[in-house]
Amino acid sequence: MSDAAVEARLSTQEEERDIKMRARGVSVFYGQKQALFGVDLEIPRHAVMALIGPSGCGKSTFMRCLNRMNDTIDSCRIVGDVTLDAEDIYDPAIDVVELRARVGMVFQKPNPFPKSIYENVAYGPRIHGLVRNRQETDEVVERSLTRAGLFKEVKDRLHEPGTGLSGGQQQRLCIARAIAVSPEVILMDEPCSALDPIATATVEELIHELRENFTIVIVTHSMQQAARVSQRTAMFHLGNLVEEADTDKIFTNPEDPLTQDYITGRFG
Amino acid sequence: MSQSATAAAPGRSPQAPVLWKSQEMADRRKARYAADRRLQMYGLAGIIFALGFLAILLTTLAFTGYKAFVQTTASVEINLAAQDIDRTDIREANWRSIFRDAVRQEFPDLSRAEEREFFKIFTSSAHYLVRDRVLDNPALLDGTTTFHIPLADPLDQFAKGEVNPDLPEDQRRVSNAQLELYEVLDARGMISQPFNWGLFFNADSRFPELAGLAGAISGSFWALLVCFLISFPVGIAAAIYLEEFAPKNRWTDLIEININNLAAVPSVVFGMLGLAVFLGWFGLPRSAPFVGGLVLSLMTLPTLIIVTRASLKSVPMAIREAALGVGASKHEVIFHHVLPLAMPTVMTGTIIGLAQALGETAPLLLIGMNAFITSPPDGIFEASTALPTQIYIWADSPERGFVARTSAAILVLLGFLALMNAIAIFLRQRFERRW
């Protein structure tokens, strides 16, 4: 580890108990186009952080930096530091597979594998060797599906295709799949945008419960959702972080006029 | 359309209400429906045109070829028990005289000249056919057995109505004496026309009545096997590299352009390459299905790479992200998720590529797979023909019997192609998964 990194670690030791991930001066370029402009953001441990802002403001781009999902895009270039437990995740020595196991992700559109419900959940634990036999796999699958609030609905058809479930069930299956690997952070990219209000309520309740054990970052277009599920909220606009504060404060007394306009529906 | 007419057209002016019920609007819709119908008719006409030509092709082939699926034979009873045959050396017995004696016994009253004509009725290898059957089953030596001996090609053609007996004798290949003797055989009920299994189980021969496709079918089989074993793994590996790993830069663009160009290179060029490189430099055996398979795999590879890349590309990004999201590594994403989803299309593409290779003639001609070979190959390094080259050889042969056999061989080839395409469709429907 370099001196700078050691220093960084020492200086952050104080807050480390409370800060799970930290972004410093993160800028993202797609080819010539810059999508994020020097974002600094701290993501608190065991809390839900909501990222809000109008379409194209860079909130999804920022989130995809947190588990290096942007690596899959050839033209994408990232500057700045992102740390997970004070460890630089863009360090060339970092193991991306380990990172993505520790920072799980749930996508906007439910994307279960075209395999059985059981296989969907068992896949992650299997590739990471978290389960050694059938019995342990069964346990992990049941535990994950139960925590995702899906087990009761699907326990009789675990071996039917996951793609046969309804949209809301599919999204909860994806959440079960993410938590089956026991990640530390879960990133959710507009997890409810394809769901009806009832399924949305179920997923929101789930997020609420998951907060006790996981650090959650959620991108959402719904102000109400951000207000309901999150403790901290960050407002993005045109690739800049406009404001970041306790959710209560953002929604009652925002400092920036942009935030004020956005949450009251005057633009976006 | 004049300026004023445009201005007056309903619905153009934002202020005026649109007159959906007006005659002008109704006419306009009618014209649009008519265009729909015309498009449908053009499509239908195209299909009918194509199907019509296919029907003409198939009926022509069936019409010329169906006679090759039966073979005229004469039954000859031979009492082998009465013959003095050395059982330790069955092969070397005088089978020609044994066969001729048996025939003479049926017709004891023939003159020398008549007898000579008579033996020409049967295929000239008749005694070998008897010998081979006895070699297969020595128990026949203890009794009397009826052998069905194929008639020589001219008589076979006559029996199938291809020879006009009213022509002067010197204008046909069947003599008057042979015709008379044939009538006698027929009257005694010795002539029959069973299904011509020899077409599938005999190898090539100079005599049409004995010529079959066994050598060509096994030659094609071995060549396709080699072609599959090379092009399938290599094609998939190349496609995976280009699609999933290769950076997008000038080099990969160049490779892509070259692959696309290779797919369009005439097959005879690959044949030249096979001749120069595989036979010339590497000294591989001529006419061998192994070399045929190598050349065909060069031809199939570009197609297979293109198909595989397209099917990999069609797997949604969401599936890859889902797998990456739970921490799958690159090879796990590819082998657990992307490739299984792409596989039905890849298999279909492979089979269609192989079907194309099965029908490919030019490259095989250049590496000598059009040799005259009278036994099926036992392996990939033995000289052999292939189905399309066998068709080429037969189409070039002057004997009347090869005309029908050429058409029959084409039908067999088309049958194999149809079978392979049916398998491709089956695989696609059986394994295609939706997401």
TrEMBL record, chain B:
Primary localisation category: membrane
Compartmental location: Cell inner membrane; Cell membrane
InterPro entries associated with the record: DUF3333, MetI-like, Phosphate_PstA
Entry annotated with the keyword Transmembrane: yes
Highest taxon listed in the record's lineage: Bacteria
Disordered, as annotated region: 1-20
Key words of the record: Cell membrane, Membrane, Transmembrane, Transmembrane helix, Transport
Domain ABC transmembrane type-1: 217-424
Bilayer topology annotation: Multi-pass membrane protein
Xref: Pfam families: BPD_transp_1, DUF3333
Membrane spanning stretches: 39-63, 221-242, 262-284, 290-312, 333-355, 408-427
Family: Belongs to the binding-protein-dependent transport system permease family. CysTW subfamily.
Name under which the protein is recorded: Phosphate transport system permease protein PstA
Organism whose genome encodes this protein: Pseudohoeflea coraliihabitans
Organism classification: Bacteria, Pseudomonadati, Pseudomonadota, Alphaproteobacteria, Hyphomicrobiales
Gene that produces this protein: pstA
